[in-house]
Hints:
With 678 residues, this protein is α/β, with parallel strands linked by helices. The chain has four domains: 5-130, 3-Layer(aba) Sandwich (Rossmann fold); 135-286, 3-Layer(aba) Sandwich (Cytidine Deaminase, domain 2), CATH 3.40.140.80; 296-454 and 658-672, 3-Layer(aba) Sandwich (Rossmann fold), CATH 3.40.50.2000; 463-653, Rossmann fold. It has 28 helices and 25 strands. The strands form five sheets. Strands 6-13-11-9-7-8 form a six-stranded mixed beta sheet, sandwiched between helices. Strands 15-14-16-17-18-19 form a six-stranded parallel beta sheet, with helices on both faces. Strands 22-21-20-23-24-25 form a six-stranded parallel beta sheet, sandwiched between helices. Strand 20, helix 20 (491-511) and strand 21 form a beta-alpha-beta unit. Helix 8 runs parallel beside helix 9, helix 12 packs across helix 28 (660-672) and helix 20 (491-511) packs parallel to helix 21 (526-533). The longest helix is centred in the last third of the chain and has 21 residues, at 491-511. The protein is elongated, with a radius of gyration of 32 Å.
Amino acid sequence: MPPKLGILAGGGPLPELLVRACQDSGRxxxxxxxxxxxxxxxxxxxxxxxxxxxxxxxxxxxxxDAGCQELVMAGTIKRPSLASLRPDGWAxxxxxxxxxxxxxxxxxxxxxxxxLEETEGFCVIGADDLLSDLLATKGVYGHVKPDWQAEEDIKxxxxxxxxxxxxxxxxxxxxxxxQVLAVEDAKGTDALLKQAQKVRMSGPGGVLVKVKKPGxxxxxxLPTIGITTVEEASAAGLRGIAIETNGALxxxxxxxxKAADAAGxxxxxxxxxxxPDVSGDVVDGGMIIADRSNPLVxxxxxxxSGDFLGAQLMQSLKKETEGRISFAGVGGARMEEQGIKGLxxxxxxxxxxxxxxxxxxxGLLGRMSETVDTVKRLTPSCLVTIDSPDFNFRVAxxxxxxxxxxxxxxxxxxxxxxxxxxxxxxxxxxxxxALLPFEPPLFEEQGLPSTFVGHPVLEGDAGKGNGPGFRDRxxxxxxxxxxxxxxxxxxxxxxxxxxxxxETLFLLNKNFPQLRVVVPTINTVAGPVRRLTAEWxxxxxxxxxxxxxxxxxxxxxxxxxxxxxxxLELAVARTPAVIAYKTNILTAMIARWLVKARFANLVNLIxxxxxxxxxxxxxxxxxxxxxxxxDLLADTERQDKQISAYDEALKKLTPKGxxxxxxxxxxxxxxxxxxxxx
Length: 678
């Protein structure tokens, strides 16, 4: 009969499996359950004692009093701080003698095993000595097999995980398309998978690779997977798990296979001897960047217009590289459609104005640090920041000198205010993509390479709306006066304009009794927009999506819009408009002091005259807006003049020989490949 066994139990199913094995073989045992780690319900009916993790002396006493001669360590233990551990005398002596504070997990466990055997007289065995059928076997588990790309990811994952293990940090890495997305640390595999989910790129999902640390004490903390690992890997968007043959444990093999097949992901046992080309490598920082012919572009968009630019750019980059490109970063719904997996919701960055930003500053600073850390970890082929300079420039400054080309898309309006910014920006950016033809010289004279790429609105579908179809499906008669109202894409804009626009409609309705209103919006603010516009004094239809918006433009006689990119979309749609804008008093006072531009509407700026009526700040009043809208609706000559002005401005915005996004993509590829953009 084997000697009595002491089971030092942490979390997870492994300790319970050891209990069953002892019961099946008739072996005597005692469970030492660590409070806050092991599941109490699993040991209620078996010999056990509950002990605080730091009370090591008490655990030793229980084991010796029970006559235990062999010990096995099983289950997960989250490494606590020394203060939260509250070590007793035995533990304090162990820490002092072993130098535990400077050791990683494996070093600490080796020291603990040595002390338990040499000082306390126990024999420590491994869980695999008792449950040999749990050791991972070579080959595929289940029906799903890795393809060639997954095999490549496994190779890079082995290299990253082994390097991590050599430094006694962790045992696992997640790799996607040759890029290491995340590596394990003291927080464990659960935290690793959550991080991998945040930074997942477009394209086929990544692979979780788990191997034991080189020279690891196999009797403690072997890499382990179970049903939960499969479920969390699937939730993280991974397509497979690779584990080391005879170096990892698979808890409940049949259930793991069933769960993996149901989730459509593979599980495979890998023999490191089959990968001699990577198993001996050391990788700096655990970060491996694979074949640079398949570059990773990290993009950051902070608002709806940037999301549009980013989506167009991603589509063009795919075409420019024939699909050999990956994306990560922060974007909205359009960029997600092109395959980006957002690090966090883009809506968190969609705030404008000094007074509006201040209450949200702590959260923005936290997201800024998270973004910088992620870019450093992924080491992309380049970083492309899109507009939103308050956030993006701070990120770029912190990444200057890290070996990552920094490209900004949408030049800041130095021609309108704070011209000194051009020199500062030139100090940290590597290239600037400008939307307006007069912008590049302002930055090139400061030493910043810049390219006029044109405005991507020009290649959108704003001019392809179906007006009659929109009226038909929404029950809007041909005799009804329909106007499009656009109060903005940010809540800070909407909150300033919705009341003024509502009052404007009240005044308009007096002379246009059959007035109907359509409000195109985006999903991030659709709920508040519906609630606010429900109070307006005329029938309001709120629609979402680009096609609905463009159909609304085509169906409308005119538009009342907040200043912004949408004003250019109205130009492409040839929908006459009145432009308005208002911010809170503090932001307005500062803007009045700093802003030098004569106009807010881009059409007026390009033409250097007020071809489109605009009412800003103190002039943004319902009575002024109502008169301007009434004049526009009643006078076809005014409408025709606006349309002619639109055509004139759009011609100046169109680059020669390229679509805007295609030219931007071409420049980015040249920056990545170190060619000089024209």
